[in-house]
Design brief:
Number of helices: 13
Number of domains: 2
Structural class: alpha/beta
CATH topology of the largest domain: Aspartate Aminotransferase, domain 2
Largest sheet: 7 strands, mixed
Number of strands: 12
Order of helices and strands: HEHHEHEHEHEHEHEEHHHEHEEEH
CATH architecture of the largest domain: 3-Layer(aba) Sandwich
Bound molecules: pyridoxal-5'-phosphate
């Protein structure tokens, strides 16, 4: 095989030295405290059976979609799903993308224009940052969940603002690497008072909050938000994503979001699996969410009892993070937990800032009280 160019070799070597080399893990049968399958839907055999039935009923291609959505890939299941999503999520329209990564790339690279400004929470997902980087608008980050700092950053940039500049503000309703939440009501009010466009990524709130509909729905803010990003690979246990927005914005994205246009559409099977997952969630999601909520509350109660709560980021979501500065330390504890049978992943720098390396505990409806208690006991002895 051809030799890796020297510059790339050096970058890998630097990763090795920093204890930050990423490798693809082998599947393990450990107790799951790391997947995004918050409600256990990814594992349900009856859902898989319903997907096959739905495909047969609709006489759909069981395999690929055969082309881009703008060519041959826009099979009938797309319309069914998008109509459903718009209604269910109380949005004018919905546009399905192949993944949350694609949705964010497509949205942020095409919507903010040259002369516009995007203000983004410093901890937003890599896909949002990548999308912004591809686009032509200027961008500034603001301190995590800090509205005062946001106002100040906007104020500072006011001098060099074009007259017709649009301002976009982007955050997540549940932060993927912290599990915490901004003051969405205040943020929505601030944006509507100032005519700014607020975009909220709901990847980790869908299925968990608002009877499954997300935090924006729980707070009744649907009409205040310019666009919501929802993803189906997490609590829905499937794959893909959607932008919830106005009809006009959907029309724009269909014309300009390159990650929608220049890629093969999702297969009928994937879209059917999203429809089936929603249908399951509407029928049985309440029970799964109750179990998940019990586990979240129990986890929080245990860390308080063990007096280790100060080492955790305060969170009410399914994601709980223990900050343990240094890649070496987080890797060590993660290995100890894995040896004891628990799958807990270390989040290393550069994925998070140096000094803020962490263990990320994802809780699920199917974790047990005993599992949580035993897991936290090990954590307690380590820190
Ligand atoms: C906040 C957030 N947005 C978007 C994505 C990307 O979603 P997907 O996995 O569907 O590409 C993720 C996934 O990690 C995420 O955490």
């Amino acid at each position: 095989m051809a030799k890796l160019p020297k510059k790339l070799e050096l970058k890998l070597e630097k990763r090795r030295q920093d204890n930050a080399l990423r490798v693809l893990p082998q599947p393990q049968s450990l107790i799951d405290f790391s997947s995004n399958d918050y409600l256990g839907l990814a594992q349900k055999q009856d859902l898989a059976n319903d997907v096959s039935k739905l495909l047969k009923e609709n006489e759909l291609n069981p395999n690929g979609s055969s082309g881009s959505r703008l060519l041959t890939g826009n099979h009938v299941m797309y319309k069914e799903l998008e109509d459903f999503l718009a209604k269910y999520h109380n949005s004018e329209a919905a546009l399905v993308f192949n993944s949350g990564y694609d949705a964010n790339i497509g949205f942020f690279s095409s919507v903010p224009q040259r002369g516009d400004i995007v203000f983004y929470d410093e901890l937003v997902h890599a896909s949002i940052r990548d999308g912004i980087k591809i686009g032509n608008a200027r961008s500034y980050k603001f301190t995590h969940n800090d509205m005062e700092k946001l106002s100040k950053v906007i104020e500072r940039s006011r001098n060099d603002l074009d007259e017709d500049a649009e301002i976009y503000i982007v955050t997540e309703s549940v932060f993927s690497m912290d599990g915490d939440t901004p003051d969405l009501k205040a943020l929505a009010q601030f944006c509507s008072e100032n005519n700014y466009h607020l975009i909220v990524d709901e990847a980790h709130a869908l299925g968990v909050f608002g009877e499954g509909k997300g935090l924006i729905s729980q707070l009744g803010l649907e009409k205040e938000i310019f666009a919501r990003i929802i993803t189906f690979g997490k609590a829905l246990g499937s794959h893909g994503a959607a932008v919830l927005c106005s009809n006009a914005l959907k029309r724009y994205l269909v014309n300009f979001a390159r990650s929608l246009i220049y890629t093969t559409a999702l297969s009928p099977h994937t879209i059917a699996s999203v429809l089936v997952a929603y249908s399951y969630m509407m029928k049985n999601g309440g029970i799964q969410r109750k179990k998940l909520r019990f586990n979240i509350d129990y986890f929080k109660e245990r860390i308080r009892t063990l007096e280790i709560q100060d080492n955790f980021i305060n969170s009410d979501s399914a994601i709980h993070c223990l900050i343990l500065s240094g890649n070496k330390k987080v890797k060590q504890l993660s290995e100890q937990l894995q040896e004891a049978g628990f799958d807990v992943k270390p989040i290393l720098s550069p994925t998070v800032k140096e000094g803020e390396e962490r263990l990320r505990f994802c809780l699920h409806s199917y974790n047990t009280k005993e599992e949580i208690a035993n897991l936290l006991q090990i954590v307690k002895t380590y820190i």
